[in-house]
Design brief:
The chain is of the alpha/beta class and 719 residues long. Helix content is 58%, strand content 11%. The protein has 26 helices and 14 strands. The chain has an eight-stranded mixed β-sheet, with helices on both faces. Helix 26 (670-679) links the parallel strand 13 and strand 14. Helix 2 (25-36) packs across helix 15, helix 9 runs antiparallel to helix 14 (386-415) and helix 10 runs antiparallel to helix 13 (326-384). The two termini are 30 Å apart. The model is unreliable at 1-23, 76-86 and 700-719 (pLDDT under 50).
Length: 719
Amino acid sequence: MNEQVISQQFSSAAAPADRFAVAGNSLRSAGLTLVRNRLLILACVVIALVLGTVATLLTKPTYAARATFEVQPDKQIVGDIESAGGTISSSDRSFLQTQLTLLQSRALASQVVQTLNLASDPEFVGPAETESPANAAAQRQALASRTNRATSKVLANIAAAALNESSIVEITYRDENPRRAARIANAATDEFFKANVERGFAASSYARNFLGGRLAELRRKLEDSERELINYAGENGILAVPNQENGALGSQSLDSSALSPLIQRVAQARTDRITAEQSWKLAVSSRGANLPALQDDREITALNEQLAQLESEYQQKRATFLPSYGPMQELKSRIDLTREQIARINRQNIHGLQASYDLARRQEAALQNQLEGVRGSVFETQNRGVRYATLQREVDTNRALYDALLQRYKEIGATTGGENDLAPVDKAMIPTSPESPNMGLNLLIALILGLALGIGAAFVRDAIEDRISTPEDVENKLHLPLLGTTPQVTGNIADLLEDRASPLGEAYFSVQTALRLSSAGAMPKTILIVSCETGEGKTTTALGLAGSLAARGLKVLLIDADLRRPSAHRALDLRPDVGLSNVATGEVEPLDAVVHVEGRSFDFLAAGPVPPNPAQLLSVGFAGPLADLSKHYDSIVIDSAPVLGLADAPLIADLVDGCVFVMEAGRSRPSAIRAALKRLANAKGMFYGIVLTKFDHRLPGYGYDYETYRYTYRETKPV
């Protein structure tokens, strides 16, 4: 059988792993990995906590002093609900950002250093040089150097930020000395207030002087432009009318005053003409009867009602009398007369609508002619007033500039009293506890880092070792069917196998049940038990499977085909003189070499004397005896030598119905299992699945303390 055939057998003869998979397999596998490596994770956490504690204890404590004040970019107006809350609007954000930048400027830090004389504080900038400078220049240079260091230190440890999107600004200064931190924070606030007031005085004085000169210049320019406008209006006969809103002069004529109402009258006349024309055209059409003017005529309404009654009466009598009957002819004459009256009245109404249309058309034409005359007069007046309009705009522009500058000049005059747009809120208090290091926070960070490192190391270790330790590993890593697991037990293995109520006996009973189900309900005739190397529980599995099959009432034979390091006879406490090697050479008949084990329910064929070339002996002399023995037994279980490095198991696998692979939990790697399966790839028998032995159900992480797999095949004690 090749690998493709093995895969087909997995899908047909054995239940695929994913048939029994559940959604939480990956999560459970990860959980088992963490449990198996819990000591490694715990060690990483402990080391991280110890390092975090040591680093925290070795770090010098830093204290933070905080002072707050309010920024008032605009004075609040009484009744202004939005500004009463003290929040800063979007238009003032740039102003607030400017103040925050100034708070962290080098100029302010330098002023704080000078005010508190920090350059002379040895605790702040370090001790002075042992030797004093020889001359004044060197002294000034040394003082400048210390001042520069002190300024840089203040600038590095000061911070300013707005609180909660409001106009409240908090200044924070961090220092190893709590008293000095509070002094510097308060000094920075005071110096910022002083600098702000000085900037306000300087800016107000400059602005007032500048605006005073501009106002005088604009006043002269406004007077000149108004004088030129009045002279031009007098020379060209333009009437200057003062504006009622701002008192400015404007030009106006009779024609221009009448133009706007005349345009409205022409538009109304055009609307009336269109309405009359549409009414008349609709009246003369076939849909004229639907006009509201015709339908609202009371006389027509009365005649229509009379006509309806006459027609109804005529239709009723027509069922009884003939049209030639005298009263019927009289009734018909009355109907025709009524219809003629309705038609006559409709014609009169249509003539009235036509007359209305003619009148509206003549009125529109008259008003249009009048509008053309007035429009020409206005155009002529406007051509003469182009220069006047230009002069008027110049006057208006000068007046607007003058009014704006005058208002600003008054505002500056009202606010140039040393007012400050900053208001103190809280002074910086001496901090009682250090801000850093924070033992709790540092230990929490160390705990998180330790857990992350430990979990990562656990998964890396699991990926590097990559052993088959749990039933889930068989399905997830090998994608092979699992026949069952056997527990890790202590004591006499043979006695435990005979006790069907023991965990080991129950496990092998489950294995033979799974084996029977995997072979389409019929137990295979010949079964080969194989493993990668010795000591994985292959012989124990052969004994347990043989005993379990015999317990079902089958006639079972156990053959020890390990002609290199036989161990089944020692597990059964037998010392037979002949065995399989004698049968394979033809010295003894197969049934003569079989012994019945006392106290067991199955027969046993021992390995016999160890031959010099076991593989060659099995390839030549095992097929015939196996066929003869199959005629006398219901099931034959064969214990063979390990697969890797030896040719015995592949030779036997070609003769049996199927193979059962045995692996010890936590010992074999997936690569070793695949290598063993490749050795069996050319066999024709069925591969039924894997039995995971020595699995400790109480410890999910069992199996990762085994030594690295070794290829050497050596004799071990029976298990």
